[in-house]
Amino acid sequence: MKSKIINHYNIYAFRSKQDFLNQIKSEKKILVAMNAEKILNKDKRLQNIINNNIGYPDGIGAVMALKKKGVDAVKIPGSEFWLDIVTAFYKEKSFYLLGATQEVIEGTVTKLKKEFPDIKIVGYRDGFFKSDDKEKLKKTLLSLQPDIIFVAQGSPRQEFLMDELMKVHPALYMGLGGSFDIYGGDKKRAPKLFLDLHLEWLYRLFKEPTRVGRQLNLVKFLFLLKIGKL
């Protein structure tokens, strides 16, 4: 796997989704979606987690930065790729799902079992923890021994949790943000036209104007990339 350091983050480049799948088949690592906002994050703990695992180009900003460093890469949206992982490995590996509301996670599990009848989902739970839930989760993972764990809590909360869980139960972890909501239909991805033009960020801004502060990070990122500061 080729990778480059961009603003202190080690980001891997993949030629295709299949290339990515081939690389992670036997890995026990945390997969972290890298976009402009995350690359600009100065949190040292987050940097250490990503640099010790596999950060991949989820956003067009990360792809542009890798290409400027001389490495060819494609955008791999995490909201799609987790289902590619399921498709590739559901007959041979076991899964645990964590995140979203109880209603959403139950709907996600039901839909997965319908689309992948042989899938082995050994357990699941929502993403809202009470005081002792984290310790219970660790014991559950040790007992169930899932091969692949999807965590949908939003960043960097999900990265911090996955890092903590990895120390107890090594496996392939992937942070999914709001992907369970998208899969269940509560939220929708941008139309194909926006995706083809790499303007998913603009569509999301139309749908959620309160994201304007976050989208300014993309403007800042592109400016820093242009002047060679990344």
How would you characterize this protein structure?
- With 230 residues, this protein is an alpha/beta fold.
- It has two domains: 2-184, Rossmann fold (3-Layer(aba) Sandwich), CATH 3.40.50; 192-226, no CATH class.
- It is 49% helix and 17% strand.
- The chain is built from twelve helices and eight strands.
- The chain has helices spanning 17-24, 36-39, 44-51, 60-68, 78-89, 102-115, 133-144, 157-168, 179-184, 192-196, 200-207, 212-226, and strands spanning 2-6, 9-13, 30-34, 54-57, 94-99, 120-125, 148-152, 172-175.
- The strands form two sheets. A six-stranded parallel sheet has the order 4-3-8-7-5-6, sandwiched between helices. A two-stranded antiparallel ribbon has the order 1-2.
- The chain is globular.
- The mean pLDDT is 90.
Q: What structural category characterises the helix and strand content? A: alpha/beta
Q: Helical content, roughly?
A: 40-55%
Shape: globular
Number of domains: 2
β-sheet strand percentage: 15-25%
Unreliable segments of 5+ consecutive residues: none
Q: What is the β-strand count? A: 8
Let me know the largest β-sheet. 6 strands, parallel
C-alpha termini separation: 21 Å
- Please report the first level of CATH classification, the CATH class of the largest domain: Alpha Beta
- Tally of alpha and pi helices: 12
Along the chain, the helix and strand elements come as EEHEHHEHHEHEHEHEHHHH
- In CATH terms, what is the architecture of the largest domain? 3-Layer(aba) Sandwich
What's the arrangement of strands in the largest beta sheet? Answer: 4-3-8-7-5-6
Radius of gyration, rounded? Answer: 17 Å
